[in-house]
Amino acid sequence: MKTVNQHFINGRFVDSHGRDTVDVHNPATGELIGRSTRGDEVDTERAIAAAKAAFPAWSATTLEERKEYLQRIADTLTERMDELIATTIAEYGAPVSFAGYIDRQARDFFLLAQDVLKPENFEEKHGNATITKVPVGVAGLLTPWNGNPWFIAGKTASALAAGCTVVIKPSELSTLQAQILMECFEQADLPPGVINVVNGPGTVVGNTITRSPDVQKISFTGSTKVGKQINHDATETMKRVTLELGGKSPTIILDDANMNKAIGFALTAGLLNTGQACIAGTRILVPESRLEEAKTAIKAGIQALTIGDPQAPDTVIQPMVSQGHYDRVQSYIRTGIEEGAEILVGGEGKPEGYEAGNYVKPTVFVGVTNDMTIAQEEIFGPVLSVITYRDDEEAIAIANDVEYGLHAYVYGEDQQRARAVANRILAGRVMINEIVDDPTSPFGGFKMSGFGREFGIHGLNAYLETRTVFAN
């Protein structure tokens, strides 16, 4: 069992002032694998003070110097990659294929951040004006549990590239993964105070960061409910805020689609990370005339999925991250039944043979109307809703009839028609006929899915302010 009782503040590990502890369980087996000590206001204020003190010198570094430091972090992550992947599997329950992908991408974020460190991204001339982009200040980075190394790295890489210093609050469900990242940050030997990490609850550590007058920028990924509170608190000190919040993404299957291929696409989108993903396509919109065909394809597709040991290379369905989250997903399944939806596959309880872990049966509801709870609220588990439509206009209307607007998917044979549908969906990203990842293209949402964009030049700009100087 691993014990985490220190935070990374001002370039070194320091004992936690906070004394509350939380146990870490393997979600696939229920085994106790760790215990962490949670930071408090004192720990957080120390981290903020360190970041504030380090900011003047760090913001004055050259682009080449920042590139070198980013490279150092990437190199240390490469050295610890196997251990990080194993820890992600053990602590989070992620299948080995997914854990490998997100952890290697975490490393790559620091390499990609080097590519945006170009003089033209920081200064331009406009007549007698010199327009410069300058770092906003200390950035508070608040990250979720569903791929925590990925979120920490993406935010940190952009902030450091911009010239900001950072205070990171990882998810409490990811302290073992965060510990490895802290050790990598220490090994990279950045100037003291540039990166600070405090483990602890959002109600204590997170609130201290978002309310501090010495923090000028907040980047948060998580629930819409928490995002609203963060945004409210940030207004008191006029912080710049990026919020990447919840989603209830539609997958529109057009009536000209090859149904077997389309359902394969829809299940992949809907069960990304076993549904524990804000971008998961959890509403499958099917032409009314092809519903029976879709149901047959869904049954076959779900039956072919592998549920099992996250360390097995063919595992697709992983456990929920915690017992509490398992209970939450079960409550949504019960709600779907109570509101009149029909279970096509899956249902309540755990898959046979996996009673020890937090496994949920992959569940697909049919007979769903878009006003049902399971069609409107983010479940964050392997629970999908099939909703029928009559024509493209109704499909678009249903797709947009939720409070979220983070992501969407379209599948159809006619590319021009599919693009026309995609262009009318209110979402930050829409994918047509393929599921791709581009960590250089902007990512973020419409409506209650938040505001601001991450990745690439857009991610860099989120940590910069604009100054104009006039001179003859």
From TrEMBL:
SUPFAM superfamilies hit by this protein: ALDH-like (SSF53720)
Signal peptide start-end: none
Domain of life: Bacteria
Top-level EC class: oxidoreductase
Residues in Aldehyde dehydrogenase domain copies: 13-469
PROSITE patterns noted in UniProt: ALDEHYDE_DEHYDR_CYS, ALDEHYDE_DEHYDR_GLU
Gene3D superfamilies with a match to the protein in the record: Aldehyde Dehydrogenase, Chain A, domain 1, Aldehyde Dehydrogenase, Chain A, domain 2
Keyword Oxidoreductase: yes
Family matches, as InterPro entries: Ald_DH/histidinol_DH, Ald_DH_C, Ald_DH_CS_CYS, Ald_DH_CS_GLU, Ald_DH_N, Aldehyde_DH_dom
Name recorded for this polypeptide: aldehyde dehydrogenase (NAD(+))
Protein species of origin: Streptomyces kaempferi
Lineage: Bacteria, Bacillati, Actinomycetota, Actinomycetes, Kitasatosporales
